[in-house]
Amino acid sequence: MATPFQRLQAIDALRGLVMLIMMVDHVRETFYLHHQVPDPMLIPGTDEPLFFSRMIAHLCAPVFVLLTGLSAYLYQHKHNSIQMTREFLIKRGLFLVFLELIVINFAWTAQFPPDVVYLQVIWAIGFSMIALSAVIGLPKKWLWLLSLVIIFGHNLLDTVSFADIPMMHQLWLILHERGWIEFGEVIRFRTSYPVLPWIGVIILGYCIGTSVFGDSTSVRKRNRTLLTFGMVSIALFVVLRLANIYGDQAWLMMPTLSETFMSFMNLTKYPPSLLFILWNVGIGLVLLVMLQKIETKSWIKPLVVIGSVPMFFYIVHLYVLKLLYVFAVQQFGMTHGEYFGVNDVSTLWFIAIALSILLYPLMRAFAKFKHGNKHITILKYL
């Protein structure tokens, strides 16, 4: 029978893996802005290394939100209290929203007070945690239904607009449509991560926890069920994508096989389409099973360490990237129009790997401090 610690190892390892992948994408958003890509990407003119680097990074947000829901169930299971779990979700959700608005937004814009606030992934996770807190008391079957209705049905809302109803329009921008919420000339909010689909994903993670991580579930049975969920999700993606009818923009036959494959895998992240969620959640669950099988290996420990302090890693790496960019501009000036940037994608990977190695000792020290001072409440949120 699996212990909670054993479960946490694989979950933290997966969280650590996606944090490192995220590092590559954030290096891209720092040192490759002269080759910025839209969402979804434009296949003609987008180099393959850039496309596939961005495609791999798509794994990060869905897996992190899914694991947040799964971890919420494990917290509830550990404390045997829905009320304690609800309170924890609300407190941490509000804390994450605060971090997004103040700490993280400053890392991107270097403006305080800001005139633009970007509501990105940490905001979406925090908002989703608060939403999850409101529904965790529902029967399991209703939670499954709610999650699947949101995930499979939200693309039906893509053509809905409330542009002529200001109050509804602002709410809709938060829930489902990427856009700008403006308060005169004082401040603007960019809803980069509309939250409705992410609420579906976090509830899905919680539901998977209730179905798979019970006391009576053996490691073998749990892994078999997780693998089944993952493969079914991937299979649904393939079937629906081949049908080319619903779940994302249509893919096209392109001049080359490589470009056709890129078109097939060119999925919408903002907000995440049905097919985006199916593919990335499926891959994430398969990776979780694979990591479960090797979680006791010593070489997997760095992933576990980073995954145990995800918010600390997230904040630190953003500020390090900002400082590196400022330093690079001072030393070399603007090398690509209005930006300093590197010349190829391989350099982005090199920078990301180097920074990950350099930051690891700090992550390990903080993880040791965090786990040795569990009485400090704020550390639970980092």
On the 0-100 scale, what is the average pLDDT? 91
* Shape summary: globular
Spatial order of the strands in the main sheet?
A: 1-3-2
Order of helices and strands: HHHHEHHHEEHHHHHHH
Tell me the number of structural domains. 1
Largest sheet: 3 strands, mixed
Q: Strand share of the residues?
A: under 5%
Instruction: Give the assembly state of these chains.
Output: single chain
Secondary structural class: mainly alpha
- Individual helix count: 14
The parts where pLDDT drops under 50 for at least 5 residues are: 1-7
Radius of gyration: 21 Å
Total E-strand runs: 3
**Head-to-tail CA distance between termini:** 29 Å
Approximate helicity band: 55-70%
Report what the structure shows.
The protein has 382 residues and is mostly helical. The chain has one domain. The protein has helices spanning 4-31, 48-57, 60-79, 82-109, 121-135, 140-153, 166-175, 196-212, 219-243, 257-264, 274-294, 301-308, 310-332, 345-372, and strands spanning 116-118, 180-183, 187-190. The longest helix has 28 residues, at 4-31. The two termini are 29 Å apart. It holds the Pfam family HGSNAT_cat.
Tell me the layout of helices and strands.
Blueprint: H1 4-31, H2 48-57, H3 60-79, H4 82-109, E1 116-118, H5 121-135, H6 140-153, H7 166-175, E2 180-183, E3 187-190, H8 196-212, H9 219-243, H10 257-264, H11 274-294, H12 301-308, H13 310-332, H14 345-372
Parallel strand pairs: 1-3
Antiparallel strand pairs: 2-3
Domain Heparan-alpha-glucosaminide N-acetyltransferase catalytic: 7-215
Organism: Psychrobacter nivimaris
Transmembrane segments: 51-74, 94-111, 117-136, 143-163, 195-214, 226-247, 270-291, 303-328, 348-367
